Fold each of these.
Amino acid sequence: MILVFGKTGQVATELRALLPDAIFLGRDEADLTDPNLCAHKIVTLKPDAVINAAAYTGVDKAEEDEDTAALVNGKAPTEMAKACATLGIPFVHISTDYVFDGAGETPFSTDHPTAPLGAYGRTKLAGEDGVRAEGGTFAILRTSWVFSAHGNNFVKTMLRLGSERDKLTIVGDQIGGPTSARAIANACVEMARRLQVEPKAAGTYHFSGTPDVSWADFARAIFAEADLTCAVEDIPSSAYPTPAKRPSNSRMDCHTLDVTFGINRPNWKAGLADVLTDLEKTT
Ligand SMILES: NC(=O)c1ccc[n+]([C@@H]2O[C@H](COP(=O)([O-])OP(=O)(O)OC[C@H]3O[C@@H](n4cnc5c(N)ncnc54)[C@H](OP(=O)(O)O)[C@@H]3O)[C@@H](O)[C@H]2O)c1
């Protein structure tokens, strides 16, 4: 049996569709601000593997609420990893490109030095470090620009704004790989299963959609796919100030995931088409 932390988030929702027999713990059953409770759930439920799909994902909010973000993103996954190590079971944990500073134009390798630009990235990095330090059979999957038919994300915001306006200004100088939550869920399950039989595959991996694009180009692709005639004007990040600074370069080198697990970068255009189909079914 696989135990999943998270029930309502983008990735957790896709995991629910994929794993009908798994146990999913939402905030009401396992609040990640109580890391010891999370560990206790693992030890008492005795699963075969654990996937952590819950996180404090409010990037701007974390700037003013770093203590809570540190508990949820740092301490909780650390305690989960410790409990998994005690039971000798795999722990799959999702992290982010925000652990890097976004400098340069080269894709970040998994061993590139980390240097988060803000509170969210710092707390996610603390979680990574905690998980690695526990020394169990872990997989840390760093991903980026997550989108799905559920929850709040760039695709859904663009679909709403694109149907209301003739023209939008979108940041054109941040480049990354949009990644469908469904593809992340598939990767997490594959890794959890493989780690059960191949613990030496434990480690830190990158997984982002291909090809890398700017937010502005991603918006254009969304409008084209949805038949919306909204024009997009590129603007620099400096013209769209936010409480937390975003990395300019979110490109990630994903080849070690392919070499070790045979998991390739997912094409985000296919993921986008799936999301639009899912949204059509629900409206
Ligand atoms: N979204 C992105 O663009 C992005 C980019 C890179 C990496 N990631 C990483 O990918 C993973 C999945 O992200 P996502 O986009 O699926 O997230 P999401 O849609 O924002 O969902 C986050 C989930 O975490 C839960 N959660 C938050 N605080 C909690 C707490 N104190 N106790 C229990 N549950 C709590 C939320 O529950 P409620 O519904 O109750 O609030 C929600 O189910 C995360 O590790 C995230 O850091 C995301």
Amino acid sequence: MTINRELFDQVMVPNYSPSAVIPVKGEGSRVWDQEGREYIDFAGGIAVNCLGHCHPALVAALKEQGEKIWHLSNVMTNEPALRLAKKLTDATFADKVYFANSGAEANEAALKLARRWALDKFGAEKSQIIAFNKGFHGRTFFTVTVGGQAAYSDGFGPKPGDVVHCDYNDLAAFEALISDKTCAVMMEPLQGEGGIVSPETEFAKGVRELCDKHNALLIFDEVQTGVGRTGELYAYQGLGVTPDILTTAKALGGGFPIGGMITTTEIAQHLKIGTHGSTYGGNPLACAVAEAAFDTVNTPEVLNGVKEKEALFRELLTAINDKYNVFSEIRGKGLLIGGVVTEQYAGKAKEFLTEGVKEGVMSLVAGANVVRFTPSLVISDADIREGMARFEKAVARVVENNA
Ligand SMILES: Cc1ncc(COP(=O)(O)O)c(C=O)c1O
């Protein structure tokens, strides 16, 4: 059997358009494809591989747990899940954890919990969910409807109801929407897919205050920002605004699928026995790997390292930009960095990614106008420099192609 990119078109549902290369091996921030070509990974599996590829601590945890017990279902609990839940609650505002398998599932649980909480405490009238334009919360029908991009939720028939949106960072618009009928507000404490947009502190604080005023729950979707990505364990800790419910996934498993929703005891009690669940959520293999990832990331060395690496990334990107003038702004926090392309390259962010792959560097986009970098949190300075040297060549090619 020939395993190549053509086979994808033959046997896979056509909802993705993966790049031409097929990586087969990874180590740290380096990846090799079928032909043995090497890439520096600034994409990290879309902000997932927080410790790069095949980190020894994660490999050891996976092997160890793989020889103990793989799966039980939630008919029984398991040691890795309990240890991970204890560590998550010790390190955050939360007292309780619900495990899922992805970001979307964690958000689905958060939204369902919020609706239950509101129904139990205030009645059926309080069901409105407010979210933000350009937000992204996953692809289940509820989460994609709450996400603020109609292009992703249109075309599937009637949507879950009572979901409204306003612009991020527009406190006046938000204030006009929220009322005592609002059940919950879902927001990213830095919009990722929507273009790497940080919240203004006044906006985030204002949202919190208005949620309190109207008895609405504030849900922070930290699927992309969580587990060290912004240089804090969770972004809310740097923002100084504490949510009522927080969702985490991506980097939580360092590459092994897992998601989690964390909240307070008071709120959690509304998800009573039988109200929600998952066969795999809290699976011992996933939790064992996640525990190793969490232990490794949640240290001053790694978290402070993120801030230092951000500075190096920005310095090198700025130097490239001084030469080629392709970005109007370099923004983001920690190792969630976006370069906003100038007018001349409007709609062409993906060209930088495509040329990058040709030069041996993997990056991402966040929408049509932002080139995004979400590398490993422990990427070496040498790999950052080498990857940026390759990215510079890619930028030169994009400039040449568009001259
Ligand atoms: C903020 C945010 N929430 C939710 C999701 C969905 O996560 P998953 O793809 O694991 O379902 C993503 C994925 O990009 C995300 O960035």
